[in-house]
Amino acid sequence: MFVKKKVSLVLIISMVILLLFGCAEADPNSILEGEEVSPKVVDGEESAGLKVHFIDVGQGSSAFIVGADGKTMLYDAGGDDENSGRIIVDYIKDIGYEHIDVAVFTHPHADHINGAPTVFKELKVGSVYYPKATHTTRTFENFVEAVSRAGLKFKTAKAGVEIPFGETTAVLVAPISDKYENLNDYSATVKLTWKDTSVLLTGDVEKTSENEMINSEQDLDIDLLFVPHHGSNSSTTDGFLDKTTPDYAVISSGKDNSYGHPHREVMDRLNKRNIKTYNTAEAGTVIATLDGEKIDINTVGKRQVNDQGSNKNGSSNKVVNDKIEMLDVEASISDTKPKQNSSVVLTAKVTSDGKPVEGAKVKILNHYKSKTTPYEGVTDKNGVAEISYEISRASIDFEVKVDVTAVKNNLETKTQVSFTPQ
């Protein structure tokens, strides 16, 4: 996604990122200097194996991992409102921890990083891994500033980097390329292996990054998949599932979210492979224990939210769009393999700093084999625009790319989806 923003802001963020990465690029596997945090013992005894806590943060993503030797890792820290950090920190403290040995943040979208400032303020963090991807949002600025205030520098998250994580093997398998058109494809993807069991944490990777991983020589055979992009149909392709062959899957999404996650097509692909799937929107926090031979799954239940949309700490989820400084757009197609003369629905979600934007104009361009067809729509109070149209006799097996542009208050952002007529 590309957002038009004041050049000065982009330069400032880029300079801060450069300073934070500092010399880490010279040795991405080096251990952070300073105090080493000792392994944690839970309830007076060592963990029975590698535990992955997929925290219920609503429409967002955060996982807290505890190795068999007590080492800890946080994978993303974002959710569907400004209280995400409070939810994550409270959960970690409730299960007996006040430190994080390694933090991995996948990419700069708000639903993956908006809780980071609270995490860095209240918990001891040993090291931080992040890909070289910037964004022009206040949420991203807050994230960068929080890392700096904690006295840390980013270690580069890219394929091939091994993350020191005690007795657990932790390897980054993506991003593979240096540049992507879509910020989601920068997502830092980590494979964790404990003896003969493994889990793949994927952020919001989409088809481009998935295909790179498929075509790489990396070992992607796993037991548990953290489903990419909250179950969006832009990810979790047949090829990716065939490469990873998971027995279990976990989706992090919000109840009745406006994106429609997880999409039906993704659930169909998981179900036809008999992959046992858990969704935090229904199950609440999901805890997977990898004992080295098998995986056990337990659920905690939904976090409490009152009728006014506030959580137990009283913070409101109500969105106010009085001031818009940036735009972000995500889009999906109802049917990626439609028949000729059928209709498809393009759903676009426009946000500003993670909050829905009402009244944004959404323009789409369908690039057929012999022509280009435009359509328009306007987002509702949930920031969603649904544009339905007939594809007529579109060429069979030709991938129709659809450019999606959202415009509001002289700000503009773009993304792209596609479908292939059958």
The proportion of residues forming helix, as a percent range, comes to: 10-25%
Distance between the termini: 28 Å
> Which stretches are poorly predicted, pLDDT < 50 over at least 5 residues?
1-12, 23-46, 305-322
As a whole number of angstroms, the C-alpha radius of gyration is: 21 Å
Query: Quaternary arrangement of the chains shown?
Result: single chain
Class from helix and strand fractions: alpha+beta
| Tally of individual helices | 9
The average pLDDT score comes to 86
Biggest sheet, in brief? 8 strands, mixed
The strand line-up of the biggest sheet is 7-6-5-4-3-2-15-16
Strand content: 25-35%
What best-fitting shape do the alpha-carbon axes yield? globular
| Number of β-strand runs | 24
Overall description:
By secondary structure, the chain is α+β, with helices and mostly antiparallel strands. 18% of the residues lie in helices and 32% in strands. The chain has an eight-stranded mixed β-sheet with strand order 7-6-5-4-3-2-15-16. The model is unreliable at 1-12, 23-46 and 305-322 (pLDDT under 50).
Give keywords:
single chain; 422 residues; alpha+beta; eight-stranded mixed beta sheet; seven-stranded mixed beta sheet; 9 helices; disordered N terminus
Please summarize what this structure is:
The protein is α+β, with helices and mostly antiparallel strands and 422 residues long.
